[in-house]
């Protein structure tokens, strides 16, 4: 029994096993459409039934296979008969098979290409530079249609930008402190080259991995580098020593100045005290000069003789006395740094002469 006959074992189903009228109308319209396509008259087209089924299958497969999905990080470029038609964003889309070609491009993925090249600096030296360029696809249409090999174009543009920047820098700058500046100058120049070529690429970063002199002169260059490092090391050591010794010297100088000022003040105070004492003696000396002279003499001899070795000889004795002069002189020399007898005697004599001279002057 055919599947579309009334009693096909589904008597308990709604409509007594018959199809809904909407489905019948739809199938009838489809059948009429196939009759028109294949020259049928709408009735008795049983000979064309296999052909109709095949055409329906082909159309169904065509519709199904035309669907495609674009991910969030992608854009799809549609080419119709090889020419650009449109650009689709993320989502589900349909393209006509055999007519439209869909090319998906990841616009968020960052790629990188390495480059190792020898360049001539401004001071006519050769350096070997190893770098990497990070990029992403910013304009899928230009990336797919404007340039046949965008990555190769990127390498050539990078080499050109590197040559221009290195050619304007000295070797010392490139090899030492100028790497960050070198990468910063290369990036905008490289991007301008890529934009002029319409590659659709956007440079996200330039990293200078190595900048070395050629192997033939590397040993000599290393010697220069070591000499510069030694220079900096010695300079730092000298600065460290200076930072330690200068404050110490300043402290010692301040201490010596303070001691000198204290000694100065002490000497001034002693001199002022002596002057005041002598001023007091002047009045007493005017009253009794002989007594004052005798007292000054005795005080002076007391202060002088108390610091020396003394030998007392009885004047009336007739015995010969042995004086140990060598021992006395030795003791005198030993005590000379601390007790200068000659100077003290001289000072005492001057002290005694001063009132006498003053008295003579007043007597005249």
Largest sheet: 3 strands, antiparallel
Please give the radius of gyration in angstroms: 59 Å
| CATH topology value of the domain at 111-213 | Tetrahydropterin Synthase, Chain A
| Physical arrangement of strands within the biggest beta sheet | 3-2-5
Q: Which superfamily, in CATH terms, is the homologous superfamily of the domain at 111-213?
A: Band 7 domain
Number of helices: 10
* Record field, number of beta strands: 8
Instruction: Output the structural class.
Output: alpha+beta
Indicate the overall shape: rod-shaped
**Share in β-strands:** 15-25%
Helix content: 55-70%
Q: What's the average pLDDT? A: 77
Task: Look at the structure and give the CATH class of the domain at 111-213.
Answer: Alpha Beta
Query: Which residues sit in consecutive blocks of at least 5 with pLDDT less than 50?
Result: 1-17, 358-364
The SSE order reads HHEEEEEEEHHHHEHHHH
Present the secondary structure layout.
Layout: H1 21-37, H2 49-65, E1 67-70, E2 74-80, E3 83-88, E4 91-94, E5 100-106, E6 111-120, E7 126-137, H3 140-145, H4 150-167, H5 171-175, H6 179-197, E8 201-212, H7 218-287, H8 289-305, H9 325-334, H10 341-363
Antiparallel strand pairs: 1-4, 2-3, 2-5, 6-7, 7-8
Helix pairs in contact: 4-6, 7-8, 8-10
């Amino acid at each position: 029994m055919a599947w579309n006959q009334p009693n096909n074992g589904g008597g308990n189903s709604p409509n007594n096993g018959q199809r809904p009228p909407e489905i019948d109308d739809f199938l009838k319209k489809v059948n009429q459409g196939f009759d028109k396509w294949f020259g049928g008259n709408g009735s008795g087209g049983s000979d064309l039934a296999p052909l109709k089924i095949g055409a329906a299958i082909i159309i169904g497969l065509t519709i199904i296979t035309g669907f495609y999905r674009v991910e969030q990080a992608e854009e799809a470029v549609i080419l119709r008969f090889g020419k650009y038609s449109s650009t689709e964003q993320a989502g589900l889309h349909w393209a006509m098979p055999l007519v439209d070609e869909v090319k998906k491009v990841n616009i968020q993925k960052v790629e990188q290409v390495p480059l190792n090249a020898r360049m001539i600096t401004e001071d006519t030296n050769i350096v070997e530079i190893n770098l990497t360029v990070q990029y992403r696809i910013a304009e899928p249409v230009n990336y797919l249609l404007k340039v046949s090999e965008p990555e190769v174009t990127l390498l050539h543009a990078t080499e050109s930008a590197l040559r221009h920047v290195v050619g304007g820098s000295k070797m010392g700058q490139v090899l030492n402190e100028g790497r960050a500046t070198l990468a910063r100058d290369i990036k905008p120049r490289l991007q301008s080259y890529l934009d002029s070529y319409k590659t659709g690429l956007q440079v996200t970063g330039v990293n200078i991995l190595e900048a070395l002199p050629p192997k033939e002169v590397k040993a000599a260059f290393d010697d220069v580098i070591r000499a510069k490092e030694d220079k900096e090391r010695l300079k730092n050591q000298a600065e460290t020593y200076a930072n330690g010794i200068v404050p110490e010297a300043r402290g010692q100088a301040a201490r010596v100045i303070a001691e000198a000022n204290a000694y100065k003040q002490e000497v001034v105070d002693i001199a002022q005290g002596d002057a005041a004492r002598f001023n007091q003696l002047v009045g007493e000396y005017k009253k009794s000069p002989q007594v004052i002279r005798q007292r000054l003499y005795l005080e002076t001899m007391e202060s002088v003789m108390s610091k020396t070795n003394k030998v007392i000889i009885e004047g009336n004795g007739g015995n010969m006395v042995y004086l140990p002069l060598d021992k006395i002189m030795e003791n005198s020399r030993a005590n000379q740094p601390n007790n200068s007898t000659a100077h003290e005697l001289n000072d005492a004599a001057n002290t005694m002469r001063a009132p006498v001279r003053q008295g003579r002057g007043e007597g005249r």
